[in-house]
Amino acid sequence: MALKIVKGSIDRMFDKNLQDLVRGIRNHKEDEAKYISTCIDEIKQELKQDNIAVKANAVCKLTYLQMLGYDVSWAAFNIVEVMSSSKFTYKRIGYLAASQCFHEGTDVIMLTTNQIRKDLSSPNQYDTGVALTGLSCFVTPDLARDLANDIMTLMSHTKPYIRKKAVLIMYKVFLKYPESLRPAFPRLKEKLEDPDPGVQSAAVNVICELARRNPKNYLSLAPLFFKLMTSSTNNWVLIKIIKLFGALTPLEPRLGKKLIEPLTNLIHSTSAMSLLYECVNTVIAVLISLSSGMPNHSASIQLCVQKLRILIEDSDQNLKYLGLLAMSKILKTHPKSVQSHKDLILQCLDDKDESIRLRALDLLYGMVSKKNLMEIVKKLMLHVDKAEGTTYRDELLTKIIDICSQSNYQYITNFEWYISILVELTRLEGTRHGHLIASQMLDVAIRVKAIRVFAVAQMAMLLDNAHLLTGNMQRNGICEVLYAAAWICGEFSEHLEDPMQTLEAMLRPKVATLPGHIQAVYVQNAAKLFSTVLRKHEGSTDSQAAQETSQLLIERLPLFVQSANLEVQERASCILQLVKYIQKLQQKDVEVAEEVSALFAGELNPVAPKAQKKVPVPDGLDLDAWINEPPSESESEDEKPKAVFAKEEPKHSRPRHTEVDEKELARRREARKQEQANNPFYIKSSPSSQKVYQDAPGVEHIPVVQIDLSVPLKVPGLPMSDQYLKLEEERRQKEKADKKKKEKKKKREKHGKGKRADSGPESEEDITPAHHVDIVTEEMPENALPSDDDDKDPNDPHKALDIDLDKPLADSEKLPVRTHRSEALKSPVEEGDGEQIPQETKKRSSKEKKEKKKDKDKDRKKSKEEKKKKKKHKHDVDEDEPVELPSEEPVQLEDTSEVAAPPTSTSAEASDLDFWLSSAPVAPPTKEATTPDPAPSSGPETSLAAAPDSEADEPKDVEPEEAKSSKHKKKKQKKEKEKDEKKEKKKKRHHHHHHHGDGGGEDSVQNGTMEEEEPLPPMSNYCLLAENSYIKMVYDIQGNLQDGSQVVVSVIFENKSDSFLKSMEFNVLDSLNSKLQRPDGAGPHDGLVVPFQLPPGVSNEARFVFSVQSIVMPQKLKGTLTFIVKSEDSSTHEKLDFKLHFTCTSYLITTPCYSDAYAKLLESGDLKSSSLRLEGVNMPFHHLLARICFHHHFSVVERIDSCASMYSRSIQGHHVCLLVKTADQTVSIDAKCDEPSLLGNVLDEIKQTFSQC
Amino acid sequence: MIKAILIFNNHGKPRLSKFYEHYTEDTEQQIIRETFHLVSKRDENVCNFLEGGMLIGGSDNKLIYRHYATLYFVFCVDSSESELGILDLIQVFVETLDKCFENVCELDLIFHVDKVHNILAEMVMGGMVLETNMNEIITQVDAQNKMEKSEAGIAGAPARAVSAVKNMNLPEMPKNINIGDISIKVPNLPSFK
């Protein structure tokens, strides 16, 4: 054995190692490939040996060769062998090789599953680490599925080194196996607060990456991230969080408001440029999301712009680049603030760094206005001339066109100028963007009718000088322009001064060197010109000219008939025959012009590029349905179907009008409008440019400038757009003068009404276009849908991760585990909240319905809101902030106070967030107490309004509010409820070991159609446990479905004193039936330490697990809470006794039941029945049901009028069925259960609930 | 996300390539070549960001690079990464290499690409930044190297001896090759933290 080892080592002496290989390659520079191929042969030999050391060495060399571009996938199996070595040295080599060359298509990957699993659970942390690193590079959907649970276990590993790697790799697992996201998410969230900064950073990293793709699902994490942001000092983490907030704010404007201040503080305080930059970026995102109606944030904008200016002026090119990048984001919403730095940006255009020049160009795009467009474009044209390198020049060219054509030519006041610019651009050498210029020419000429005369003249000139464009074959990109020129001249030939000359130009022999598609257009349009010429000469007696034209065509067209291009050939021969026929007619003196021009009669309208896509599918048409029987497999493969149609340009496709009846259309349109109006993120259309032009006041007053075009037009090749600058200046001057005159006149007529008359500089609106321009909008199918989601890529892997994370987990969602299922899943994550999925869908839909209703009510509420504000203003003048509240917020608040949405698990999260978002500006208790509420009906709004901004960053300070007077009992209750939920959530984060199942309970109310009726009153299940001058405890008990013998008691401890409460110990005297679960090793009488301390005024929640044996009887347990009260000078030991009341209700768990299963259950006959009658119950039926659901953990199975069947299940699996009927304040409940004493007790408790109200 | 990390020298010879998405070997080589062309024609004192366009992925991606002596360190990242953050990460990477190899130079990277990979694996995992603290990275790398040494033990001794002999016999010792000033100078940049 030993001999073998030594022998192996000796063998190795003669092998090349990696260094030898590298050295060898360097020594064989001339015949590198040959040398490497011999090396690969050697490696193949080495791989055949049994010695793992030799194999590992070979694999190591292969990894190097892979980097040099050699395919080493043939050695995949050997790599797996090396990976499975027990020695770390070799394992690492194997995993490195695998990470470099394995991918989803590698078939041996499926052999690795068990090996990787073994390594993941290795006692050596570096084995695990290496496996995780390798896996992160080659994880496949199969591996992800099989290993997800193992990795999730590692997230709670004792070593932070493993934890952070496990957390990071989860992102890859999610991508490959999206089903794992929901089960793993709670633990991932938990890792956000890991004590190790590396793990925390990894968790932030993963969640940021997830949230970037589907931000809306992560909105509920905002409070947690906010806390991290204000507490973390790790710049990496901060940057990630701040970036994440940037992605979240567009979804929730209120979040933005909350962020502004801490971010501003960071901007002022940080010295790290990277952090500063990201802060500025996110502030910008916030400002964009708030852009409407937040005038007091101009300071923030100024700050951002200022900081960015500093960056741009910095000598560090990196900062300059980033400054420009961020500036372009501000530009979209606050162009004015950026425009003031035009000088700086124009300066950057001259920078030697192309990246910076390109960024500066981007900025210019948004900085143009009607006023400065010509000036800026002139500067750009200068740059075009100077620019070396075609890429940059092409970029300039596209930018010029982008700038000018943006938002439907909004900023162009003079289209003659624009056409001249386009014509000038055609003289660019070697540009690739001929088609771009061409399409612009076509677009302008077609859509701006007033410009056609000018455009046609210019195009005719271009055609005449076509040799300038085509003279050099290298310039052929630009000849696309001739396509446009020819088409425009042909289509609008009636505007041509000398069609004959243009016709001649189009039929020159040199045209034959142009690309086929251009020749085709030439031929076709020559025919159009021909018809124009004919018509021109028809009236006059001079038939000679017309005949000469025909002769010209007959002479020249054969050139095209011989073309190799089919299209050209076909058109040419067709037209040639036509012309020959016409010539015959002409010789007989027949009038033909009318008929010839009829060939080309009619106008072409522009069609929007998206038009085809937007044609809605008519009702009843299923495009996926087979029209005929589906063909057999083989047939469908042979068929390469219908590419012809797909390629068809939208321009030619006239959208077919689908037949949807008018009513339906009107309804849809209305719905859409409604939706848009209510959607705060829908940007309402600003007055379109079209409107601007048409409604421009006093069109008749605009002096039509006579431009002497003859001079520049005859001299092609000279820049001529400049003259428009001057002309424009003059025109504006004149206009201004005119206006002044007019204003004065008005003044004289109506004494001094116009204060704005001649003060102030020329504003945007004052600039009127030189022509009355009618921009024809592109045609769209009549009932096109407004949605713009067609940009989304259906193949995006992140789409699969768009998963609602707030939904409770279902049993079916657990990660697949190979063995020891029950044990492996004993994580707090999946337990408890795993049984409500079927109900969830119902909740969703009902929630949506509610949403709709809310929308409908919105207008009404808004007006109400307005009134309230006015009222408030009367009362206290100094509270003027509510005006700036985004309209959504008041509505939301009002909604919660009026409608009092019943809590569900989903809405709990949501309202939690709402609460967090709206709670910040709550005034401190002292203020609350001393300030008499001015407008009682608007409680929450007032408190909001009274909020000084400075408190925005103290989200935790909401608790003192409890001290608020109980004037509005309802509201207070509601708030408390929300707070409870908040605490509960907070608790969950802190003390997972107590967290065993909180499913059921209050999550049940929403069901069926209840909330479409009258709103429900707020409810809470928390009841008082004990109270003294120091502390107050409220509690709620819930069953744990996972374990039939456990219930969870959630206790909220609230510090009522001014002192610090610590060392709290919770102890209960166990009974035979119920025992407090104590940690292993603790004696049966030891208390449980409450895992937190309470500062004054703060409350927090802890959970305690009890095991129970029999659940058929209610029961009381005596207990004591001991704690130390620590004030500044002294500390005392205090004690508070309490009695925990375990009702039978607390053993019930809300369990959905379908009506058929329910019927079967009732029919089975196993159930004993009992009944109950309640008199004088004065509440709506749905309230009654909601109460039973909420307080007693039932769910409604079915409801018919005033009769409902309900169901619940105990933690030990007893079925409890209720049939509730109501008539004239009398409620009768017939109940059935397989355990009569349990049933009796539950009914008693129900009775008690209703006797209390 | 980091899409790829490339190290190549002034002539475009790859010294390390790490792609976090799968490409064929040919595509990888082409990406390295094109990246080299883009990066190498830029002046020393221009910004370190390049819009890579369609090189890897889409327009969301950027090339962020630093040039040290004879080597280019290029990170291709998408928009979720902070540009300046990545620049600092490159700096941390190079400083870590400097510590691990003691005055790192191009030859260290040439002959010990596996070690460079191991160091990188402690910093970036699957395209996501794992650790930015240099001391932590070095601790982990050292611990693993120690493990490797202890594993080699007696069995590894002859191999080490052979390797020493080989080095002795060969006229060129890696560190003595004269290719000008190849030691990567790590400038003291304002620290990120």
UniProtKB/TrEMBL annotation, chain B:
Record-annotated AP complex mu/sigma subunit domain positions: 1-147
Location of this chain's protein in the cell: Cytoplasmic vesicle membrane; Golgi apparatus
Pfam assignment, any one: Clat_adaptor_s
Keyword Transport attached: yes
InterPro entries on file: AP_complex_ssu, AP_mu_sigma_su, APS3, Clathrin_sm-chain_CS, Longin-like_dom_sf
One GO process term, biological-process aspect: intracellular protein transport
SUPFAM superfamilies according to UniProt: SNARE-like (SSF64356)
Keyword tags: Cytoplasmic vesicle, Golgi apparatus, Membrane, Protein transport, Transport
Membrane topology annotation: Peripheral membrane protein
Superkingdom of origin: Eukaryota
CDD domains linked: AP3_sigma
GO cellular component, one term: Golgi apparatus
Similarity comment text for this entry: Belongs to the adaptor complexes small subunit family.
Known role: Part of the AP-3 complex, an adaptor-related complex which is not clathrin-associated. The complex is associated with the Golgi region as well as more peripheral structures. It facilitates the budding of vesicles from the Golgi membrane and may be directly involved in trafficking to lysosomes. In concert with the BLOC-1 complex, AP-3 is required to target cargos into vesicles assembled at cell bodies for delivery into neurites and nerve terminals.
Stated name of the protein: Adaptor related protein complex 3 subunit sigma 1
